[in-house]
Design goal:
The protein is an alpha+beta fold. The chain is built from five helices and 20 strands. It is globular and about 60 Å long.
Length: 289
């Protein structure tokens, strides 16, 4: 089974008591851009996971209101990255370890089940899928960002900001005007044929097919009693865009590559501060730019 994430092709295989139950990932079997990176992914069940003898490079945990709490750690060697996740209340899975070999382009996912029965899972189950996409997008010289993406005719607009600032509201205003919502929460940004593009990704609460749009303008949102649009400098725009990226940077090489991408995108794409009130007036204002 193949799934496509921007220019990356993932081929999934399973063994042992692992069956794939493609949920939202099932919609991403459609290829919408040429794939120049191909990872073979192997999922297998085991009752003993051997953790890598490496230092922990990065770690985190679920939010307090998460239905199934979990903790994760990232280990790193020269050519491999390891994602270890422990679930405290999942009825099927106790822990999982994903090993990503960037040289051979192979991903091995070992799953330690709680029961002896067969496990039916989406291969990009949360939070493994989200963590994989962070590092796969980085490997493709792209990144993930908290943002809404809109395709309006041949133009793509990215609206970014902190949670609750109005990304979904802005998306709804454009949708009412006939535009296409790429996604209103998370976007995969990647340069394709010298043009920065935005893509959606599989998400458990979005039944979307793959979508993409060229990136024409970037808007950094703020709430305001009146609409306003102010262009900001490349350097200031880069810092503000950087603040909204989903970034798990733990070494100098990753940080440098990520910063290079951010500065490249803000040199190529105009960035604006956008204050808006939730009416269709803001759509007309941006279309007139």
């Amino acid at each position: 089974m193949d799934i496509f994430l921007a220019s990356i092709k993932l081929t999934f295989n399973s063994s042992g008591k692992i069956n794939f139950d493609f949920n939202t990932s099932n919609l991403f079997r459609k290829q919408i851009v040429d794939s120049n990176i191909h990872f073979n992914c192997f999922y297998r069940s085991t009752y003993k996971i051997e953790l890598p003898k490496k230092r922990v490079a990065f770690e985190g945990h679920s939010f307090e209101d998460t239905i199934i709490p979990y903790e994760w750690k990232i280990y790193k060697s020269d050519n491999e990255l390891f994602i270890h996740i422990v679930f405290s209340e999942d009825l099927m899975i106790f822990e999982t370890l994903a090993t990503i070999n960037f040289i051979d382009k192979v991903i091995i996912v070992d799953i330690h089940p709680r029961l002896s029965t067969t496990i039916n899972i989406d291969p990009l189950f949360h939070p493994l899928g989200s963590l994989l996409m962070i590092y796969l997008s980085h490997f493709s010289s792209g990144f993930l960002i908290h943002a809404a993406g809109i395709k309006d005719n041949d133009k793509g607009y990215l609206f970014s900001g902190v949670s609750g600032i109005g990304k979904s509201t802005m998306s709804g205003l454009w949708q009412k005007q006939g535009s296409t919502i790429i996604n209103d929460d998370r976007l995969w940004i990647q340069k394709i044929d010298n043009q920065w593009m935005m893509f959606n990704t599989p998400m458990s609460n979005y039944m979307q097919e793959p979508l993409m749009a060229n990136l024409s303008k970037i808007f950094l949102l703020s709430q305001s009693p009146e609409n306003f649009i102010n262009q900001i400098s490349n350097s200031q725009g880069a810092l503000l865009v950087l603040a909204n990226c989903i970034q798990h940077l733990f070494d100098k090489e990753m940080t440098t590559a990520h910063l290079d991408s951010i500065f490249d995108i803000t040199n190529q794409t105009l960035v604006y501060e956008l204050g808006f009130k939730p009416t269709s007036e803001i759509v007309s204002l941006i279309r007139k730019m």
